[in-house]
Amino acid sequence: MTTDRGHAMELRNETAINVAGLLRTMTGGSRTYELHLDAFPLGDGLIARDVEGEVRLTRLRDAVIAAVRVAGRVPLECVRCLRIYDQSFATEYSEEYRQTVDLRSGAELEPKSDEDEDTALIDENHELDLAETLRQEILVALPMRPDCGEICPGPGSLRPDLVETDEGDARLAALAQLLGEDSVDEEKLERDGSGG
Ligand SMILES: [Zn+2]
Known about the structure:
19% helix; two-stranded antiparallel ribbon; binds zinc ion; 6-stranded mixed β-sheet; 2 domains; single chain
């Protein structure tokens, strides 16, 4: 018999955990893992980096609760200056994973009456995967309007050559003029004046 009391196990670049051992313990038994993910895809081309945290699994009668605390960073595009910057995040949540197969008999266990397709499950190999809920929780922890912060040079830094278009220069110039009308003109005039 192994005991894991006193020291945390490590999950490195891995989000699936085999809980067969935990399911053999008494209800209320728990395990703690240190989580390290160098890169964790969030979908839509977003990737969380240097994700560090702690996962505590607690056995219930027919489920395992994962209490997760993580922090890391996600390179995001600033809505003002369109630069890519590192957005830090921190979040904590817990998720219940229902046991689907009896550990000893291998018999399938009945789903609970309130269960739906979003219920997280422990699979037939007695593994649970943190990935899907972790992905959603990190996305929720990110700002709706990513902003690189005090160092942001602001929309005035928007260079016409960064505006995506396949039209000719005339349209681009018109667009730049429109965009610049209320924010850039003064600066621009000043610069033009002093420049020559
Ligand atoms: Zn910015």
